[in-house]
Amino acid sequence: MTAVAQLLPASRRPKRMTPARWGLYAFIFITALYFLLPLYVMIVTSLKPMAEIRQGNLLALPAAPSIDAWVKAWTSACTGLTCQGIKIGFFNSLRILVPSVGISILIGSLTGYALSLWRLPGANILFGAMMVVAFIPYQVFIYPLVRVFSFTGLGQSLLTIVIIHTIFGLPTMTLLFRNYFASLPVELFKAARVDGAGFYQIYALIMMPMATPMIVVAVILQTTGIWNDFILGLIFAGRDNLPMTVQLNNIVNSTQGERAYNVDMAATLLTALLPLVVYFGSGRWFVRGIAAGAVKG
Amino acid sequence: MQKSSVDIRSLQIGFGGLKVLENLDLHVGESEFLVLLGPSGCGKSTLLNAIAGLIDVKGGEIHIGGRDVTWAEPKDRGIAMVFQSYALYPRMSVRRNMSFGLKVAGTPQSEIERRVGEAAQMLRLTSLLERRPSELSGGQRQRVAIGRALVRHAGVYLFDEPLSNLDAQLRAELRVEIKRLHARLGATMIYVTHDQIEALTLADRIAVMQGGVIQQLDTPKKIYREPVNRFVASFVGSPAMNFIPGRLARGGEMVFVAGVNRLGLNGYVFRSQPTDAPVVLGIRPEHIEMTGADDQSSVPARVEMVEPMGADTLIWCRLADGTAFSFRRDADAQVRAGDALAVRFPADALSLFDEASGQRL
Amino acid sequence: MRLSLTSRLSAISALLPALLVMFVVYIGATSWTVWISLTNSRMLPNNNFIGLRQYEMLFNNDRWITSVHNIVIYGVLFVSLALLIGFLLAVAIDQRVRAEDTIRSIYLYPYSMSFVVTGLVWQWLLNPTLGIQHVLRSWGFEGATFDWIVRPETAIYCLVIAGVWQASGLVMAIMLAGLRGVDEEIWKAARVDGLPKWRVYVSIIIPMMDASFATAAVLLSTGVVRLYDLSVAMTNGGPGIASEVPAKFVMDHLFERANIGLATAAATTMLITVIAVVAPYLYWRARKGEMR
After folding, report:
1. What's the pLDDT band for A155 if we cut at 50, 70, 90?
2. Closest Cα partner for B323 from B258, B249, B237?
3. CA distance A15 to chain B (A)
4. What is the tally of structural domains in chain A?
5. Can you give the residue range of the structural domain that contains A194?
6. Taking CB atoms and an 8 Å cutoff, what residues of chain A touch B76?
7. Residue A132, domain member (yes or no)
8. What's the pLDDT tens digit per position in A221-280?
9. pLDDT per position as a tens digit, A167-185
10. Which of A5, A13, A14 is closest, CB to CB, to B67?
11. Residue A56, in any domain of the structure
């Protein structure tokens, strides 16, 4: 072995950029382009007048950028029958979002707390069943739920869609908080019990204040999830409360005659805006949310 | 089996602006067992990783077997390495863990089998060859990791805290096994640890490190008996060495003065001219002797606490002026808290350090 | 620890919403759906039991067969491409590249967007008259054709392109977490062993990451069965019925075609498929958890 080794020349300091390194950066650059292309095209298209879109190049920068299409998308684009722009959908989504996020996190954290720290009979079975349910497509539940809500008189309404989001958010929220509480030192819980704190006192005064990071993750997860929902809003929210995603689809896909691609793209960007802001604003928290949500089961 | 020497010349390592090692020189002879000993963050693992080629150096040279390998890939350095976390490939059997590197290097199958068989027999792994790492105990895993290093037939074996993840009993067993292996193979070994017992039992020579600097490089016996500074003195040895502050005075012979106590230093070999700067006297617990009160050189002390430690007993005492120290007696010592004793500090077992610099006088 | 009666009651009260949802929504609704699928209900549910007749009709329905065919193509391509691309992206980022955070953000941002947005953007990009095909031709590639979205036999692949774009970042995030979890000493040991990097990934790292792969694959697969918004927004099932998918089949038959017997039979078929995928996975995870 050393006989061979001695034939080798004295070692040299390696160069900083090897060909492999160049290849790596080329790969990253090209894939990054693929991921950025749609966002770029959305932005430039939304800033061009229709004439330029018809003649020009999809990738070209706008000759004379204008926000006309944005204004039109926000205030006067037509969603089927009415022409009041996507702003209606924006505010509908907001009205759905705020109570849904709050209530689903409240109930999810309480359930997760009860299932993790209080050794109740059947808790594991309940939790396991919820995990299975998290994977089941909505189509299985939708029809009976529609019937139940119309039977109770709620029908399609804001309250209905909030309840629906709470129901379908429950498995993930429970999982999130159960795993978090289970990772805390159990001595903390025991100490609180020895001090005589009751079930809800421990929850409100000890556990939730410690769960701030999980609450942030849950808010991010639920905000993007509920904002991006299409099918539940379509079925349960009712005509007056249709969320932004449904309105957007109506604007783009139910146009008669020539389509205003600039308006479509402006409306699309407006719909994507909130999740994008949450995503870029939250940085690593979003990744943490994925990681926490990904350990389903 | 090949045995290589290792030569490190004015080695510099840094991460960003932080200097970890600066101008470090070290020579490890063929077949030598060298232990790098020090607290965490002293640079010992960094040094070992640099020898292995796992981190880039900023300056200086590393020679292994007479060849400059400063910038060579780890596989071309003629080294093998054993890691603290074992670093076994989790989804491969023991056999494949040991043979994989050879196979990728294109070693003939028959040669691979011969080497794996030999290493497995040496480490008593033959019956475990088809198991996965997850099916092994910690001690078995570390033997596999050693086996994976052995089959490389390297000139130098590097060990990075290999026993620190094991419990005390296994650690003692594997320590013996490694020592036996060294005796049998006669290979050059460099071994990093923070455990002074491992260092003392295994090493031909120990390099005690702190702050990226080798404080003392010597045989275990010298390190233990004649530490060059207070750091080495306090880091090596358990129970720890006693330190008593005082000063030197000349009254015919050199005398150590601490409060009302005076201790003659006849028999102590000074390294440098003594001065009257404050000094610290160090003495190991087992070197303090109990004598009768009529002994001229004895000092009266009062027992404060007795700690039985199985094979022997540690006795905590105070001198009349309150200075605390401990000393060691056999397990049968009939000593109780509150007893009055007379003890003697033999001059030839002492260490004296300059209080300001901590250097041995 | 023994629980006092009050604590026990409090705990049970906290679980009431979950229990209600479990029994009324999940179990109740599922059973009702399954029951309806066994009756000859049309616009409204009735209790005329007809056995598996709806299923017979379902599997003789062209539109359903096309939907199933499509979802198989979509599922296989989407899951394998997203896994492959996501893994490669994670490996690339794991090479201590500069501006790591920015690159990761770029790969992952599509996952924050809805399927509706994804579908509409890609509908625009793939539009043959003004989209990518037009760009290629204007660059001088006169014969360039990229009109998959308007051709019945290729429309489903357009959904794959959009889906992979949206979900690869998710796989990347899961894989990157897995790669970062690999003990650094394994890499050191492999370097001392002289293994080339690709060999370490293939022979050592990928086998170690079975949990990450399984998690990503299951997440992607459940997304496949649910696929609805993307098809609606991007092609609305077209051209013709060329890009129909099962979830859309259920929704259309529930709310437009007023054939709830057939719709629930389709939904029940989806349910069985999901359980067939998820149950072994959950079982495997539970076993693994016990072993640890």
Report:
1. confident
2. B258
3. 11
4. 1
5. 89-242+267-294
6. 5, 8, 11
7. yes
8. 899 899 999 999 999 988 888 999 998 888 888 766 678 888 888 999 999 999 999 888
9. 999 988 998 898 888 888 8
10. A5
11. no
- For C24-47, what is each residue's pLDDT tens digit? 888 999 999 999 888 888 888 888
pLDDT over threshold 80, residue C285 = no
Contact C191 B91 (CB under 8 A): no
The gap from C-alpha B115 to its chain's centroid, in whole angstroms, comes to 31
Against chain C, the chains showing at least 3 CB pairs within 8 Å are A, B
Å between B201 CA and nearest CA of chain C = 26
At B17, give phi and psi (nearest 5°): -90, -10
Domain extent listing, chain B = 6-229, 242-354
Chain A interface disruption, residue of B5, B54, B71, B73, most A CBs within 10 A: B71
Share of chain B above pLDDT 90, in %: 57
Which CATH code of 2.40.30.10, 2.30.30.140, 1.10.3210.10, 1.10.3720.10 fits the domain covering C62-291?
1.10.3720.10
Any idea where the domains of chain C sit in the sequence? 62-291
Q: Give the whole-angstrom CA distance, residue B230 versus residue B281.
A: 10
User: Is A1 within 8 Å of B68 when comparing Cβ atoms?
Assistant: no
Query: What residues contact C103, with CB distance under 8 A and at least 6 apart?
Result: A28, A32, C93, C97
Residue in B73, B83, B91 closest to C189 by CB = B83
Yes or no, beta carbons of C192 and B79 under 8 Å apart? yes
| Contact criterion met (CB < 8 Å) for A147 and C279 | no
CB within 8 Å of chain C, chain A residues 144-203: 144-145, 147-148, 167, 170, 174, 190, 193, 198-200, 203
* Cβ within 8 Å, pair C192-B80: yes
Q: Round the CA-based radius of gyration of chain B to a whole number and report it.
A: 25
Beta partners for residue C113, in sequence order: none
B80 contacts in chain C (CB < 8 Å): 192
When pLDDT is averaged across residues A198-216 and rounded to a whole number, the result is 88
Report the residue of chain A nearest B107, measured CA to CA.
A1
- Asked if residue A198 belongs to a domain, the reply is yes
Report the C-alpha gap between B33 and B202 in whole angstroms. 7
Residue B165 distance to chain A (closest CA, Å): 24
Q: Is residue A133 part of a domain?
A: yes
pLDDT surpasses 50 at A4: no
Question: Half-sphere exposure of A87 toward its Cβ, with a 13 Å CA cutoff?
Answer: 10
Q: If we measure between CA atoms, which residue out of C72, C276, C88, C270 comes closest to residue C159?
A: C72
Instruction: Report the gap between the CA of A5 and the closest CA in chain B (Å).
Output: 7
Q: Tell me the pLDDT band of A7, cut-offs 50, 70 and 90.
A: very low
Predicted pLDDT of residue C71: 92
Mean pLDDT of chain A: 84
**pLDDT tens digits for B219-277?**
999 999 999 999 999 999 888 899 999 888 887 788 888 877 788 888 888 888 777 88
Record: contact B90-C192, CB cut-off 8 A? no
Of B66, B71, B154, the CB nearest to A12: B71
- Distance, in angstroms, between B176 CA and closest chain C CA? 24
Report CA A212 to chain centroid distance, whole Å: 19
| Cβ B9 vs Cβ B25: under 8 Å | yes
Is C183 part of the contact surface with chain B (CB cutoff 8 Å)? yes
For residues B152-168, give the mean pLDDT: 91
CA angle A246, C265, C258 (to 5 degrees): 55
> What per-residue confidence (pLDDT) applies to A294?
56
B242-354, superfamily in CATH? Answer: Nucleic acid-binding proteins (2.40.50.140)
Tokens of A239: 């005509």
What is the b/e burial string over C186-196, where b = at least 16 CB atoms within 10 angstroms of the residue's CB?
A: bbbbbbbbbbe
Nearest to C192 among B81, B84, B86 (CB): B81
Residue A296 pLDDT more than 50? no
Q: What is the pLDDT of residues C258-273, one digit of tens each?
A: 888 899 999 999 999 8
Interface check for A121 against chain C (CB to CB < 8 A): the answer is: no
Do the chains contact at C33 and A280, CB–CB below 8 Å? no
User: pLDDT, tens digit, for every residue of B274-294?
Assistant: 778 889 999 999 999 888 777
Average pLDDT score over residue span A86-104: 92
Please state which CATH class domain B6-229 belongs to.
Answer: alpha beta
